[in-house]
TrEMBL record:
The keyword Transmembrane helix does not apply. Keywords: Transferase. InterPro entries: Glyco_trans_2-like, Nucleotide-diphossugar_trans, TPR-like_helical_dom_sf, TPR_rpt. The keyword Transferase applies. It comes from the Bacteria. One of its GO terms (molecular function) is transferase activity. This is Glycosyltransferase family 2 protein. It comes from Cohnella faecalis.
Length: 357
């Protein structure tokens, strides 16, 4: 059985830290909590779970803090979590099984990061992260903000889920770091440009976000998933600026980087639907409905676009054309994913009436 050091960096996490650490009892053989300047009870709470609560002077660099946490660990495998993450019971069992069965040649284990669930408990937004790594490989964190773990070698893709359950965060912290970098004229990596754009978008500064996103794509050095994500975020920015033609252009730009994905097909279909170009909308929604998500993809997963949403919109489109059998067919397919959805059940009743007449 492998031994695991859980490595965390924290600051003012008294509301969530105990919940996180409770969820890894029996999984982590060592817990390293690196505190970057808490002024609440965070360190006191951490001390109830581990004797390795270590201060680290904050230098506006998340990678530096995470690398320090890794350096303090002593077990052969390192796992990382944020304070507002939890391991649910089903995934605890999977992690314990992984500890017993992990092949010795595995360098990193990828797990799903659940960002959001619907009312049915289905994951609606997620990504994949290198979550457990072999200490001997000396993998390093990179990036002052939105840091990532640079991993090579034999990667095992697991079905284990880490669930994000945030209660609060400093919404301006990352933006302040990037703006300080800009004032000091420090060099931005392509990844910095991408995440700077994200922070600006989150703060509704759409014109400034567009500038950073275009700089990012112009480098030609971005990770493919960030390139694709940027196309969607540029489309969002132009949508907020009421420039729907540019929104469409940047949705289509995503095809430069990969084959069509369901979320972009839905964007394009919506554009045509809003212009009453129903045949074109049907084409793109049908394409979205026929696509299958690759579970090994490390990009963000929008469940709705890959499951029920294209069928619901096809129901609407076919209804507008008076093709009620086709509309009902797609509403039934949407209901298969969300059997208690009020709007779909209302569609069902409406369409049954239409089909009778």
């Amino acid at each position: 059985m492998i031994k695991i050091s859980l490595c965390m960096i924290v600051k003012n996490e008294e509301d969530v830290l105990a919940r996180c650490l409770d969820s890894v009892k029996g999984i982590a053989d060592e817990i390293v909590v690196v505190d970057t300047g808490s002024t609440d009870r965070t360190k006191e709470i951490a001390a109830k779970f581990t004797n390795k609560v270590i201060d680290f002077t904050w230098v506006n660099n998340f990678a530096a803090a995470r690398n320090f946490a890794f350096s303090q660990a002593t077990k052969p495998y390192l796992m990382w979590l944020d304070a507002d993450d939890v391991i649910l019971e089903e995934d605890r069992a999977k992690l314990l099984r992984l500890k017993r069965t992990l092949a010795p040649d595995v360098d990193s284990v990828v797990m799903t990061y659940c960002l959001q669930k619907d009312s049915y408990g289905n994951i609606t937004s997620s990504s994949r992260r290198n979550r457990l790594v072999k200490k001997a490989r000396q993998f390093r964190w990179i990036g002052a903000v939105h840091e990532y773990l640079e991993v090579l070698g034999n990667i095992f893709h697991s079905d284990i889920v880490v669930t994000h359950s945030s209660t609060h965060h400093d919404s301006d912290r990352n933006l302040r770091i990037y703006e300080e970098m800009e004032r000091e004229e420090r060099e931005f990596t392509p990844r910095d440009l991408y995440y700077y754009g994200n922070e600006l978008l989150d703060h509704a500064q759409h014109t400034r976000a567009i500038e950073q996103y275009k700089k990012f794509l112009a480098t030609g050095q971005g990770w493919i998933e960030d390139n694709i994500s940027t196309c969607g975020k540029l489309a969002d920015c132009y949508h907020h600026l009421n420039d729907q033609e540019q929104a469409l252009e940047h949705a289509l730009l995503s095809f430069k980087y990969d084959k069509p994905r369901a979320d972009f097909c839905c964007r394009i279909a919506y554009y045509h639907s809003s212009k009453n170009e129903i045949a074109k909308a049907i084409f793109w929604y049908e394409l979205a409905a026929g696509l299958k998500w690759d579970p090994s993809c490390l990009g963000f997963y929008n469940s709705a676009c890959w499951t029920w949403l294209p069928h619901l919109q096809l129901c609407v489109c076919y209804d507008r054309l008076g093709q009620y059998e086709k509309a009902n067919e797609h509403n039934e397919k949407a209901l298969a994913f969300r059997p208690d959805d009020a709007s779909m059940l209302a569609n069902k009743k409406y369409l049954e009436g239409r089909l009778k007449t």
